[in-house]
Every structure is written in structure tokens, then in C-alpha cells.
Amino acid sequence: MKIAQNNTEETTVVIIGAGASGLTLATFLQMAGIACIVLERRNRSYIEMRQRAGVVDARAVRMFEQWDLTDKLLAGPVATTIDYRLNGIGRIFKITEEDGISSRFCTQQMLVGNLMRELLDNMSGDVRFDVSDIGIHNEEGHRPKVTYTDASGSHELVCDYIAGCDADRGITRSSIPEGVLTKYTHEFGYAWLAALVEAPVTGNPIMAISDHGCVAQLPRGPHRSRYYLQCPLRDGAEEWTDDRVWNEIRLRLNDESIQNAIVHDKFFVPLRSVVYAPMQYRNLFLVGDAAHLVPPTSAKGMNLALYDVDILSQAILKAVRDKDTSALENYSETVLPHIWNYQDFAVWMTDMMHDAGDPTQNGTFRQQIARARLDNLFNSETAAHLHSEYQRGTN
Ligand SMILES: Cc1cc2nc3c(=O)[nH]c(=O)nc-3n(C[C@H](O)[C@H](O)[C@H](O)COP(=O)(O)OP(=O)(O)OC[C@H]3O[C@@H](n4cnc5c(N)ncnc54)[C@H](O)[C@@H]3O)c2cc1C
Questions:
Q1: Is the Cβ–Cβ distance between 235 and 196 less than 8 Å?
Q2: Ligand 1 probe mutation, 289, 303, 306, most atoms within 8 A of CB
């Protein structure tokens, strides 16, 4: 990093947002010797406490392996199976492997904490927390500039590239002039209540369908898990008391032996899919949730964000080291087919799971069709293989 004036600095890449994608991108760039500065509006401990995804998929594991970071970042056990159930009866379903590499049960919180330690404590990376008033100047014919404020005053960063890793409500996407981006969106018409509870997954993670709606239980570390419960859009988290949550879990899993445990937090998540295209404008590149959202049913949001980082980091390396900007120019075109493939998977999976459950959703005919499909998945090796191929994006 070069100091140009009192409060003006130069760097190669400014990354907005220190979440899963921003920290991964910064770690790769730092390892490759490319100067970068991360700007984050929250403080470090807030970010390290934020609990979200729970599985790093096989593709992302392979990416971290290529950077020799798997052991440092992905401490969780290998994820090989999920317990799928239909009205209490089900079978163990094998999670996709890619070329012998398995997914990992590693919470997003653990990944982010490990990235933070690697980047800040072991690599002297530059992450600036508690910043506000970020301004993006990305004009034709000029090097991009990012301005921001912190406790010490106003600052300006002159750079070559800006990575917008600041999720759906961040500021980078809104800095792109109106008319450049197209927003594609799909509302599913129902919601999930997400409850983080003080009860670990004791066997396999569970995805269960019942006449009362879907329920999923996914691991979130050694002592906690997150339950997801399908609920109507008209509900809100406040209508779901802790007792109601546990009663519905027992009902939907058909298991009266489940005991109430502490509920740490509850979110109400209306299910929707969103894609913004193109994912770049001049020298600004959108990454992860800043460019696309998938419903949590597909467990892919963080993994898609990591996919974007994989493509963008390689493109930046090529631009900086080889002075070849072709991969950067094609970033959006390279990434979007993969994103749409997963949107397709997410819609298929989400509709099937919800149609198969509560018949007030789409009627008993759709319920039976969806159950037949699930039955195929549970009982047919061919269908299960096709599902795996679908999820890998190879269909
Ligand atoms: C309840 C829940 C459950 C989920 N479950 C799963 C799952 O099981 N599997 C899965 O793969 N995905 C899951 N996801 C999705 C996953 O968490 C996201 O897709 C992932 O976090 C995207 O990473 P990101 O880096 O794009 O955004 P984030 O991780 O959200 O990071 C964005 C960062 O930008 C910062 N920021 C925002 N605005 C500004 C600003 N103006 N200035 C500076 N910084 C800013 C934020 O503070 C944050 O640190 C879940 C999400 C939620 C909410």
C-alpha cells in the first residue's frame, strides 16, 4: 500500500464487506501478494459471532485445497449424509462428492473466524472495521476511488478494482447507475422460521416433510443446531413462541420424545431467489449476496459466494500479474451460468419439498406428485444419482 497524501492511500483492490466472500477474496489476494484493503461497517467481534450457513460444499473445499487452506479454515467433520424423511419415514441420503472431495460441516461463523485469524493475525492483512459513509467513484477513464469515514476522520482509497462483497443491503450495488443492472426475482409464496437452538444434531442432519409442512435440522457447531420450519408469509417471528416452535418440531418430525431447549434467536425468512446481471460495472465487481440470493432450502448462498470469489480472484491475478484483463472483462459471463444453474436447482428443490408437505400450499394433487418425486430420490439409485449430478451443476 502506498501513501499518496495525508488521508489518501493507494492499493490494488478495495473490498467492501468482511463477510464470507470479502474475507476469502482478501486472503487469496494477500497470499498472492496483491495489495488489498477491506472496509467493513461492523466490528470484528460482531462478525465473528454471526451465525448462518453450516456446510461448505465440495467445490468450495476443493478451492480451499488449491490454496492449501483446508486444514486451517475448515475444521468441521466431512459431510457425507443427510437424513431425509417423509412423514417420519425416510432414508439416509448421500451428499454429493466431487472427484472424491466431500463437503464439510463447517459453520459460516467458524469459517469467518478462521479467515479473520489467518488474514489479520498470520498475514498482517488490512481490514478496517466500523467504517461508515462509504462512497464509490467508478468513473470512465479514471482510477476508481473509495471514500469512507471512521473515528479518525475521512479517508480516500485510490485503487484499480473494487469488489462489492457487502451483501444484499450493501452500498456497492446501489452505486451502479440505474438502468445498468437487471433484477430477476422469484417469490416462493411462503417463509421459513429459522431458530438457532441449544441442542446439537445427534445423528445426521435432517430434512423432513410432513402434512404439517417441512422442517430441517442442520448442525451449527458442537452444541447447537438450526431448525427451519416452513410457515405462511403472513406469520412473523413474534408469532412463534418457543413453545410453539418445539411443538411444531415434535409434530413435523413425528417424535414426541424431543425435549424443549433454549432458543437463541429466531429469524423469519420469506423465501425468494434474486439475480442481478451483469455482475460488474467498469472496475467494480459484485460478489456473493450483493449479486444473488437463493432460498436457504438449497444451502447454497455461501457456497455461491465462494464460487464468485474463486473466479474473481483468478481473474484479478491474471490482470495484475500478466496484464491480461480478459478474464475480468468476462467475470459476469463466466459466473452467471453457474448461478442460474443453482437457481434452477434451488427452485426445483424448494418447490418439491414444500409441495410435498402441507397440502394447503398447492393442493393434494401437487402434494402427491412431489411425494412421488421424493420417493424416487429416496429409493432409486438412478434418481439419487441424477439429483447429485443436478446439484453439481453437470446436467
Ligand atoms: C439465517 C440464514 C441461514 C443461511 N443458511 C445458509 C446455508 O445453510 N448454506 C449456505 O450456503 N448459505 C446460507 N445462508 C446464506 C449465506 O449466509 C450468505 O449467502 C453468505 O453470507 C453470503 O456471503 P457474502 O460474503 O456475500 O455476504 P455476508 O456474509 O453477508 O457479508 C457481507 C458483509 O458486508 C458488510 N456490509 C454490509 N453493508 C456494508 C456497508 N455499507 N459498508 C461496509 N460493509 C458492509 C456486512 O456487515 C457483512 O460483514 C444463510 C443466510 C441466513 C441469513
A1: no
A2: 289
The number of beta carbons lying within 10 Å of the beta carbon of residue 279 is 27
CATH number at residue 311: 3.50.50.60
Q: Ligand 1: which atom is nearest the Cα of residue 287? A: 26
Please classify residue 132 by burial: count the beta carbons closer than 10 Å to its beta carbon, then call 0-12 exposed, 13-18 middle and 19+ buried. exposed
Mutate which of 24, 108, 275, 306 for ligand 1? The one with the most ligand atoms within 8 Å of its CB, which is: 108
> How many other CB atoms are found less than 10 A from the CB of residue 105?
23
Query: Ligand 1 in contact with 54 (CB < 6 A)?
Result: yes
- Which residue in the block uniquely carries the three cell numbers 425435549? 259
Tens digits of residue pLDDT in 217-273: 988 878 899 999 999 898 888 899 999 999 999 999 989 999 999 999 998 989 999
Q: 214 and 306: one domain?
A: no
Q: Is residue 194 in contact with ligand 1, taking CB distance under 6 Å?
A: yes
Cα(319) to centroid of ligand 1, in Å?
27
CA of 210 to the centre of ligand 1 (A): 30
C-alpha 304 – ligand 1 centre gap (Å): 11
Does residue 192 sit in the same domain as residue 242?
Answer: yes
Q: Do residue 122 and residue 20 come from a single domain?
A: yes
Q: With 50 as the cut, is the pLDDT of residue 40 above it?
A: yes
Give the 3-state secondary structure percentages of the chain, helix then strand then coil, rounded to 5. Answer: 40, 30, 35
Domain membership of residue 342 (yes or no) is: no
Q: Are 193 and 181 in contact (CB under 8 A)?
A: no
Instruction: Tell me how far the alpha carbon of residue 276 lies from the centroid of ligand 1, in angstroms.
Output: 16
pTM of the model: 0.91
Q: 46 and 130: one domain?
A: yes
Give the CATH number, domain containing residue 217.
3.30.9.10
Length of the chain: 395
CA–CA gap between residue 80 and residue 84 (Å, rounded): 13
- The string of pLDDT tens digits covering residues 372-390 is 888 777 666 655 555 555 5
Q: All 3 cell numbers of residue 326?
A: 480478459
User: Looking at this protein, which amino acid is placed at residue 298?
Assistant: S
Domain count, the chain: 2
